[in-house]
Amino acid sequence: MRKPLLEFTDRGIYCAAADVYLDPWKPVKKALISHGHSDHSRPGHGQYITHKRNIPIITHRLGALNAKGVEWDEPIHIRGVRFSFHPSGHIVGASQIRVEYQGEVWVFSGDYKTEDDGLSTPFEPIRCHTFITECTFGLPAFSWEPQAAVMESINTWWNEVRSAGRTAVLFAYSLGKAQRLLAHLDQSIGTVFTHGAIENMTGVVRQIKTLPPTRLITRKTTKKDLQGNLVLAPPSAHGSTWLRKMTPYETASASGWMAFRGARRRRAVDRGFVLSDHCDWSGLLKSIRATGAERVICTHGYTEIFARYLREKGFDARTEATQYEGEVAELAKSE
């Protein structure tokens, strides 16, 4: 029986024919990296190969690296295996990784979303025989509103908070979500202030994409400066002494998990906005169909439920355990 082109090992997803790993979670000699979130780009690899827009992000997070940046669809040949990177739409610089060998094509999705957020390079379905898909939100209950509608709700909330003489504090992941929000916040309402972790990461993304202005919160920033304005902060800042300077304030969280009833209460925020950098249920299904794949491997998320549904629809679907965490990975991290 022919050995699978990609195998799931204790170090990560391994291509034996090329002796390389895709998004490995333990140190390896050569790693192809889909994007800059910490569950997919980890320290300690001998060489990193990724899309060129991801280089500033991973070097900021991991330090000096032996890293090679490539263009979209630029072929990389390693021991007869052809690799290429294709947009996943997840965050800036995020890729799917296509692997072709002896007429067989596999695609590793990394993390992805199908809605064009106006900042990331939009998702591009890639034809393949086997598709490795995340299913962070692989339940029918997850169905996203269009980004424009969510942003209208967020801007309306900010305006209401400003009218009440308070500061609006919006929690969002420092890489990806924060910049997406910043790109669509209505700055005619007021000024956008940032926590240091978000300001630092936004500075990195500014090397790649143009973003509206922000003001870093420092020791010299006063309550009066912040009043009526909006503060972007990572989830890790919630409940910290850092927030005292914002008083009086109202809090909100922008996350796909806000779709769960009770999530806002559990996270002790005043408002919850459902905004995810991952596909919802229909986005996952649409994407899988667009690949034409006969085999689907489900990783990180509602894997068993999603794979079972795919099998009922005629796919050869199974699950594999990984150390990817999807949207959960960024919850407690400042960077």
Automatic annotation (TrEMBL):
EC class (word): hydrolase
EC numbers, comma separated: 3.1.-.-
Keyword tags: Exonuclease, Hydrolase, Ligase, Nuclease
SUPFAM superfamilies from the UniProt entry: Metallo-hydrolase/oxidoreductase
Protein name, entry field: Ligase-associated DNA damage response exonuclease
One GO molecular-function entry: exonuclease activity
Classification via InterPro entries: MBL, RibonucZ/Hydroxyglut_hydro, Xnuc_lig_assoc
NCBIfam families: Xnuc_lig_assoc
Gene3D superfamilies reported in the protein's UniProt record: Ribonuclease Z/Hydroxyacylglutathione hydrolase-like
Phosphoprotein keyword on record: no
